[in-house]
Structure formats: C-alpha cells, structure tokens
Amino acid sequence: MMKWIFSGLILLSVVFGIGQGRMDAVTNAAIADCGKAVELTLSLAGSMCMWSGLMKIAEKAGLTERISSLFRPVIRFLFSGMDHKSPAAQAITLNISANLLGLGNAATPLGITAMREMQKQTPHSATATNNMVMFVVINTASLQLLPTTTALLRQQAGAAAPLDIMPAAWISSAVTLTVGILMAKLLGGLTAGKRG
Q1: Global pTM exceeds 0.70
Q2: Where are the domains positioned within the chain?
Q3: What is the tens place of the pLDDT at every residue in 20-43?
C-alpha cells in the first residue's frame, strides 16, 4: 500500500512541477533529498545494530529476565496466556522500557523480535493473534516518560527548551494508550466469543 502512496506523491510532484513551470525545483529537490535519505537510512541502521547488540548483551547477562519479572503483572493482564519468561515476553518488556524512555529507534528491533517470537507460537501464521494486536497498539501508542527523540528533533530545530513538551506528551500518550488498550481488549473479547 505504501508503495502506491509514495508513487502517487512522486507523480503528483512531477505533474504540479510541470504545470507550474517549476520542474527545475522538483529536480533539484529530488537530487538534494536523495543524499538525506541515504544518511537517514545509515543512521537508523547504525542505531538498530547498536540496540540489537545491547539487547543480546542484556539477555546474556540475565538483565532481560529481571526486567521481565518487574513487568510480570502488566504482561499477565495485557497478554493473556503468555509465559512471562518466554522470549516474546522479554522482548515486549524491553520494548516497553525503550518506549518509556522515548527511544523509538531502540524499541524497533525489540518490537520486531517480539512479533517474531509471538508468530512462532501462532498456529495460523497468516492471522494476527489478540496478543499481537495488543502489542502493536501498545507499541504504537506508547507512553513516553521522557520523549527523547522528539526533544532531540526540537533541539536540532532550534527550540530553546526542547523538553517543555513533556506534560503534553504524557497526557496525549496516556490517553491514546488507555483508549487503545480498552479497544483492543473489547474487540479481542468479541472475536474470541465468535470463535468459541
């Protein structure tokens, strides 16, 4: 789906560039932004490699097990039937921890690991389970105690106080997370009732 959206945006840019006689501006923007796209890809790849490595170190040191035990009541409530000692539960807890600190780049590889581990436990590989849906909701509408990435972007844009958005970030993420969890539980219960 996204390929069609991006292709449409590119096509519209060319059409409007020709229509307004500013095709040179479209060409210059495309050439300049190609380099930025490569820089972004490399920086994200480096960040993902670093955090994936740190997760492996934490796993070998037994840190993931300890963090998982702290989140045990939350995991038990949100993810019905999941073993809190499973690799999926450990990846979920580390993902939640990274999101709490506003480290979206760190949360991404952990989220991918969690989904892969949950997929292994799914008999119907083409269908998402209620636990998978719940995880996507929690990961997308994550509560951020410290919006690190947003603050960094604001600092780069010249904000005098990049962390002054913290109260707004807390309120908005808490509301969206609460609504998301309630809807996932409600709709998950409805689908479970239909299957039963």
Answers
A1: no
A2: 40-195
A3: 888 888 888 878 777 777 876 776
Contact status, residue 92 vs residue 106, Cβ threshold 8 Å: no
- Residues 91-112 have a mean pLDDT of 78
CA 57 to CA 191: how far, in whole Å? 39
d(CA 134, CA 118): 12
* CB-neighbour burial class of residue 167 (10 A; exposed 0-12, middle 13-18, buried 19+): exposed
Instruction: Classify the C-alpha dihedral 104-105-106-111 as positive or negative.
Output: positive
Residue in the block written with tokens 């581990």: 117
DSSP string for residues in 63-110: HHHHHHHHTHHHHHHHSTT--TTSHHHHHHHHHHHHHHTT-HHHHHHH
Higher confidence at residue 194 or residue 70?
70
Assigned token pair, 157:
């844009």
